[in-house]
Design brief:
414 residues, Growth Hormone, Chain: A, two-stranded antiparallel sheet, 17 helices, 2 strands, disordered N terminus, transmembrane helix, transmembrane, MFS_trans_sf, membrane, transport
Length: 414
């Protein structure tokens, strides 16, 4: 299918404009940011409830649930490098559309999967779908953010807006999922698939076939310089530690909520709290931090806040609180983890273009997620074992707190 050649396509490829003293986003940037919103609505309508479904309906052991969740992250984050390289070679439109088709099939499959092998295949398909469309969208947002910066705007602010859109989707998605979960998990999955049908149709019409300024490169020749780029790899490892900590929203947090409340009903509200924080505070925080801290110091602060979130639960856990009081440490964890995420995620994406090889931004954007996805694959299985190990209540949370704290030492010095 060819892209439309009428006014909408021309508008999408227009550059940033200055209106009333403020720099407005280009139509293409607005489309890509709305894309992130739609992606996350569909995704987070399903993901927060996957852990409980695997453990209760499918009957998986705790370590296997952790492995499947890590496998989902690895099949997504770990294969971002493939999607990023394909976007550099073929442009973002075909890669985004193919990813949407695979996500639709993966969600539909997961809704009917009842055996372990079937669940794993569906989860792999869901992850690989995002490995196609997400690096394509993220690398183009980063490239357009640089164009926006050249016109006097802020690169980090664009990426913060991208984060806000994603978290707005993460806010709405679990609420939709919780509502549909009263029917059954299959209905939740089919609703997620339906959202991606709408995304596919919209992007088949609106997304340009070729974006001016984006030159296609050969697939070969990019990995060698990337693997020799120590500063970039150090950033990848630190980002992986953050992502492993963030993944505990789907592994450690549900277990803690179940213990404190006797059910996972409050989980949707904790996810909503996280998303609401990002939606309301991301841009003011980005502006405030941008005036005071450089990229490295911003990431250091974010990683230490995340470590503090785990420490809050570790300190309170031996008391064995339940009910509303028992949920307070979990809420503190969510707040501190979210504040850390608000610093780490946009800053890491803003740092990548400064470290990437010319013309390979998609590859480097994908590699950032691929390395971190490998860390999450290994770390999630270890986390599942740790949480089921029978150690004193505070120990697993203290170990998890040490991961982002240790990652501070990995960050590039310059």
């Amino acid at each position: 299918m060819t892209a439309p050649t009428t006014a909408p396509t021309n508008a999408l490829t227009a550059g940033p404009r200055q209106v009333s003293g403020r720099h407005r986003l280009s139509p293409l940037l607005r489309l890509l940011i709305l894309t992130q919103l739609a992606f996350n609505i569909g995704f987070f309508a399903v993901l927060p409830f996957l852990s409980a479904h695997l453990g209760q309906a499918v009957g998986m052991a705790g370590w296997l649930v952790g492995f499947v969740l890590g496998l989902r992250t690895f099949s997504q984050q770990g294969l971002f490098v493939v999607g990023g390289a394909l976007a550099d070679r073929y442009g973002i439109r075909p890669v985004v559309l193919a990813g949407c088709v695979l996500r639709i099939g993966g969600f539909a499959w997961l809704g009917y999967a009842a055996q372990t092998w079937s669940v794993i295949c569906a989860v792999l398909l869901i992850g690989f779908a995002a490995a196609l469309f997400s690096p394509a969208v993220e690398s183009e947002v980063a490239r357009q953010a640089i164009v926006h910066e050249e016109h006097g705007g802020s690169r980090t602010r664009v990426l913060a807006l991208f984060t806000v859109a994603g978290q707005a989707g993460a806010f709405v998605g679990p609420l939709i999922g919780a509502l549909l979960l009263s029917v059954d998990f299959r209905t939740v999955c089919l609703a997620g698939a339906g959202i991606f049908v709408l995304v596919l149709a919209g992007h088949a019409w609106l997304l340009p076939q070729h974006i001016p300024g984006r030159e296609r490169v050969h697939l070969r020749g990019g990995m060698g310089p990337l693997l020799r780029n120590r500063r970039f790899l150090a950033l990848c490892c630190a980002y992986g530690a953050y992502l492993l900590a963030y993944n505990q929203l789907y592994l450690a947090l549900p277990a803690e909520v179940e213990r404190a409340a006797g059910s996972q009903a409050p989980l949707a509200w904790l996810f909503a709290l996280s998303s609401l924080l990002v939606v309301t505070a991301q841009l003011p925080l980005t502006r405030w931090v941008g005036d005071r801290l450089d990229l490295r110091r911003s990431m250091v602060t974010g990683l230490l806040l995340i470590a503090a979130g785990f420490a809050v639960v570790a300190v309170a856990r031996p008391a064995g609180w339940t009910g509303t009081r028992g949920l307070l440490p979990a809420a503190g964890f969510v707040v501190l983890l979210t504040l850390g995420q608000m610093l780490v995620a946009p800053v890491a994406r803003a740092w990548v273009p400064d470290l990437a090889e010319e013309g390979r931004l998609g590859l480097y954007t994908g590699a950032l997620s691929s390395v971190s996805g490998l860390i999450v694959l290994v770390g999630s299985s270890a986390s599942g074992i740790l949480l089921d190990s029978g150690l004193p209540a505070a120990v697993p949370w203290l170990v998890l707190a040490a991961v982002p704290a240790a990652a501070v030492a990995l960050l590039p010095r310059r």
